[in-house]
Amino acid sequence: MPDAALLRQVADRRPEALGALYDRYSPTLLGLAKRILGSAADAEELLQEVFLHVWNHAGKYDAGRSSVSTWLTLVTRSRAIDRLRTRKVVERTHESSALADPREHASPEGVETVFIRERRERVRREMEGLPPEQRQVLEMAFYEGLSQSEIAAKAGLPLGTVKTRTLLAMKKLRAALRDEIRQLL
Amino acid sequence: MNGETNTTEDLTILAVVEEGIAASDGTRGDETADTLRRLYTEVLGLIPFEAEPEAPPPAARERLLAALAGDLGDETQPAPAVPVAPAAVAAVAAPEPVRPVPAPVPVRASQEMRTYRPATAGAGSVPVRAPSRWPLTLAASLAFLFLGLAAWLFYQVQDQNQTIARLNQELTLERTQAAGAYAQVRRLETDNRGMDEKLSLVTTRAAMVAPMKPVGAPPMQPAARGVLYVADDHQHWYMTLHGLAPADAGKTYKLWFVGGQGPVSAGTFTARTGDRVELSSKQMPAGTTAAMVTLESDPQAAAPSGPEVLRAAAMYEIG
After folding, report:
1. CA distances from A87 to A31, A39, A45 (A)
2. B170 φ, ψ to 5°?
3. Which helix (H) or strand (E) holds A96?
4. What is the pLDDT of residue A58?
5. Which of B49, B71, B283 sits opposite A109 (nearest CB)?
6. φ and ψ at B129, to 5 degrees?
7. Contacts with B171 (C-beta within 8 Å, 6 or more apart), sequence order
8. What's the rounded Cα separation, in Å, for the pair B290 and B311?
9. Distance, CA of A132 to CA of A126 (rounded, Å)
10. Whose CA is closest to B237, among B214, B210, B258?
11. How many CB atoms lie within 10 A of CB B92?
């Protein structure tokens, strides 16, 4: 079932529809949250918040502004950045998640849908294809929530250079991922 | 952005893009500003897919569904009922018990006529009959009757409200238990699927097996061992590892499948002393000829950068 149809069912207060969205996107959203927050516990807590937000605001989703996938990822990113700023974490610390049963720790690639996996491979390929300096400013803006001025100060670059690299990176990604974007629209 | 209040920093990337496009190329051709914003918003939405995915613990899904069940239970709770009182006794502050309607006092005409004498009555004056009181008595009786009826209705409504509240509590409890049972069924389904996968591996006509052996001179973990089973479709696989020491702080074990295009990540896992690690999946990169386990500092590394712990260099066909 398409994402938009599932979200309409969530707006009709059908928990099984939210469960389906959770199964489809929770690995991606949890990976994003952990990448930003650096803590598995905080990331899992944030994931719960995001899906409760989806449950309570599904009726307000506007398909004309973004796809469901983009809405979910940007809501997750926004809340993670807010939490990051609240915690004033400067350095990311990585910790392994405690697993109660090793058998349950199947590779996420084994449970994700095919189209999510293929999307991940394409996005990774294009991000790795960006020049390192462009990728750096994009990641600082996206994963650390830094403004262009903050990136310029942190990287020791002129503000204009940061803006130019950001623009070039986004243009490259837009051209390279046009097929993927077309599927989302 | 779709119901989420964001700070302006969240729109910084989009603002930079729009500013850059406007500065470098005044005409956008057929694409309007809204279209461009939408396209670049989708680009931002795709960036997170490059991050390493993390499978959430099954308990997280159960907690979410339980929270939804509680939320749905609150929505079906009816509003407290307001006791309905007849309009005629709306001014009564508190209900009164039903009182027996006093029997109207019969009025004896002779008595009534004896007690009423006009001051100027003289011989020959006509006696005036006193007004009858029965309408007043009837009205009072009816008022008491309505009071009693209102009180009875009020208590009936209160009793039904209590019954409804009790039934709602039971319904919420049933729903919570159902959510728990549902989660348990899902767990059992997951376990069943896992067993199905293993059964399919051991019952296929032909399968491949590869021993996982320690690597290095001397080996980093000489006691570590493992076996990789691959089904004849070269997609379903199952791996068991034992003897692995827990990874140091800040490091994690990562599994790689090696083929013509180089190592491909198959995910990270954690090892505990004395425990066996079991991994499985329905997908394996095409052309896989070997598998290896490394110890990585960056769980999101796209290529092996840490020391190699185990390797399956030879695959043997069985069946």
Report:
1. 19, 12, 14
2. -65, -40
3. none
4. 92
5. B283
6. -80, 135
7. B73, B76
8. 7
9. 12
10. B210
11. 15
Residue ranges of alpha helices (H) inside chain A are 3-11, 15-37, 40-57, 68-87, 114-129, 132-143, 148-155, 159-176, 178-184
Selection from A144, A104, A129, A24 nearest residue B50 by Cα: A129
Candidates B24, B50, B195, B248: best to mutate against A (most CBs of A within 10 A) is B50
How many whole angstroms separate alpha carbon B263 and alpha carbon B304?
7
- Is A104 in a helix, a strand, or coil? helix
- Could you write out the three-class secondary structure of A129-158? HCCHHHHHHHHHHHHCCCCHHHHHHHHCCC
Tell me which chain B residues have a C-beta less than 8 angstroms from the C-beta of A164: 20
Task: For residue B268, give the 3-state DSSP assignment.
Answer: strand
Q: Which of A142, A119, A32 is nearest to A76 (CA)?
A: A32
Residue of chain A with shortest Cα separation from B191: A104
Q: In which region does residue A85 sit, left (phi positive, over 0), alpha (psi from -120 to 50) or beta (all else)?
A: alpha
Residue B179's contacts (CB-CB under 8 Å, 6 or more residues apart) are B62, B65, B66, B68, B69
DSSP state letter for B108: P
Q: State ipTM.
A: 0.86
A63-109 pLDDT tens trace: 888 999 999 999 999 999 988 888 754 444 443 333 333 333 344 44
